[in-house]
Design goal:
Strand order of the largest sheet: 1-2
Oligomer: single chain
Protein name: Rrf2 family transcriptional regulator
Number of domains: 1
Order of helices and strands: HHHEEHHH
Helix content: 55-70%
Strand content: 5-15%
CATH architecture: Orthogonal Bundle
Pfam families: Rrf2
GO molecular function, one term: DNA-binding transcription factor activity
CATH class: Mainly Alpha
Number of strands: 2
Radius of gyration: 20 Å
Organism: Devosia soli
CATH topology: Arc Repressor Mutant, subunit A
CATH superfamily: Winged helix-like DNA-binding domain superfamily/Winged helix DNA-binding domain
């Protein structure tokens, strides 16, 4: 089953950008996501249109954040990248007149709608700053652990 990992990938990129001291090129971001720079530019275009990033051309150019991490949620980013499908399960529609198929599809469609609403609600509660704090705490713990290990 193919899964759409754009949201996860772009969140990864945004956190890298938050750590950068200046613009980050599409090439560098593509390496972080193990993809092609063209893919990065395509995804970043939606974020630029939404006002979350900006790009500068030429020597020393690249992508920079143009938003505060505490004011942008996972839902904002999800919407900016085109609202990819959240659930990979589909409905059968081989025989639309079949009453069993109708009953199954209604139950599944209602459940999917509830699950998506809950997921989008949660996305709206988590900011990029929250992700950055989680990343920073894990990074600090790893550095402290490595330092303590090196001293022993």
């Amino acid at each position: 089953m193919n899964r759409d990992s754009r949201l996860s990938g772009i969140l990864h990129v945004l956190l890298h950008m938050a750590q950068a001291d200046g613009p980050v090129t599409s090439e560098v971001l593509a390496q972080a996501m193990t993809t092609n720079p063209t893919v990065i530019r395509r995804i970043m275009a939606g974020l630029r249109e939404a006002g979350y990033v900006r790009s500068e051309k030429g020597h020393g150019g690249g992508w920079t954040l143009s938003c505060r991490l505490d004011q942008v949620t996972l839902r904002d980013i999800y919407q900016a990248i085109g609202k990819p499908t959240l659930l990979a399960i589909g409905l059968r529609d081989d025989n639309p007149q079949c009453l069993v198929e109708k009953a199954v599809n209604k139950a599944l469609a209602d459940s999917f709608a509830e699950a998506e609403a809950l997921l989008l609600k949660r996305f709206g509660e988590v900011t990029l700053a929250d992700l950055n704090k989680t990343f920073a705490a894990g990074y600090d713990n790893r550095i402290n652990h490595m330092a303590a290990h090196a001293q022993s």
